[in-house]
Sequence to fold (173 residues):
Amino acid sequence: MRLYGLVRGRGATAEELELLYRARFETFLRVASAVTRDPDAGRDAVQSAFVSAVRNRRSFRGSGGLDAWVWTIVLREARKLARAEQHVSLDHAPEAEAGDPSSNGHGDLEHLGVRRFIASLPERQREAVFLRYFADLDYRTIGRVLEVEPGTVSATLSAAHQTLRKRLEARTR
Fold:
């Protein structure tokens, strides 16, 4: 049985949530840190999300898979912390860390300002980019997490790519 695609009746067990936590913690942390723009806040968001998931595990309906349900909670917690810490300006964003878009070993990304460009995307575009490229989720799962149709995910990512491409081209001229 594939845990991440688990679809069954009502409720999730604490054991299933623990397995998901252990298997995907780094991915959850990477996305939450990117959303909050702070690795410590990202860690807090993941921890709070799993506390909430365990407490509310009986509310999991089984439609869409346990991973999508947990991603929704992680994203909600990260958004909440990001809003609470909005005083951090883009000019003073944290250095590249595990949850940072530029921390993939490509120093040129920071030089080109990709981190700042991604951070300046509209919320849905930014989150779709994080979920697709940092969490490696498919369009259907991203749609469940963001509560939109897979076609909307495709259009959202396309718009994000177009915006980023234009900004990079303008920057490199």
The chain has one domain: 14-172. The radius of gyration is 16 Å. The chain has a mean pLDDT of 82.
